Amino acid sequence: MDGNGRWASKRHLPRNLGHKEGIKAMMRTAKACNKLAIPYVSFYAFSTENKNRDKSEVDGLISLMREHLDSIADDLSQFGARLNVIGDISYFDSDLQNKITNVQRSTQNIEDRVVNIALNYGGRDELIYAAQQYKGSKIDRPLCDFLYTAGQPDPDILVRTGGEKRLSNFMLYQLAYTELFFSDTFWPDFSDKELNAIIDEYYNRDRRFGK
Ligand code: FPP
Hints:
The chain is α/β, with parallel strands linked by helices. It has six helices and five strands. It has helices at 4-10, 15-35, 55-78, 94-106, 123-136, 192-204, and strands at residues 40-47, 81-86, 113-121, 157-160, 179-182. The protein has a three-stranded parallel sheet, sandwiched between helices. A two-stranded parallel sheet has the order 4-5. Strand 2 (81-86), helix 4 (94-106) and strand 3 (113-121) form a beta-alpha-beta unit.
């Protein structure tokens, strides 16, 4: 969800207001994906590297999680989507960890749609975690069964907003054959119209999976 900071700076607003606006865009997009019958959608909200930003920005992002996770889970459940947090939540204080566990529990019976929100997520961390679980496992199962996204299909589409053209440590295993889309739009301005255009272009791509 790139471009929140620049969206705010352009308006002479603090960066965290950009992130707050980013939550609105996230909910709008989750709803639009639901309408398009997309069963899984993931939002990269806070990476393992984002912890190295200024303390005020990190604290601001953590406050937004504290303030908004309940209503996010509630809104998602209204349209039949389950909230699933991916990432190493042990970084957060115990209050926030409990909140994350509780909001996930509140929607755990929903099966139609899954909305992953990545919090303190790193693709490399995830692979190390999966390898450790894999090594300790007594039954023979594929590595992907131990990723944070175990049981979910690999993404068909990745959209990176804000003009950047890199993966930034996101779903390094899962993105092997994902179709990549790069947009100059700052995340808070990301619209249903742009999402629909991406889906249209996706259907025109020839996916060969190396064949
Ligand atoms: C990247 O844009 C965005 C982030 C690092 C944070 C995204 C987080 C949210 C939208 C809210 C998270 C909260 C909840 C409750 C899920 P940037 O700040 O790097 O933008 P820039 O490239 O313009 O500086």
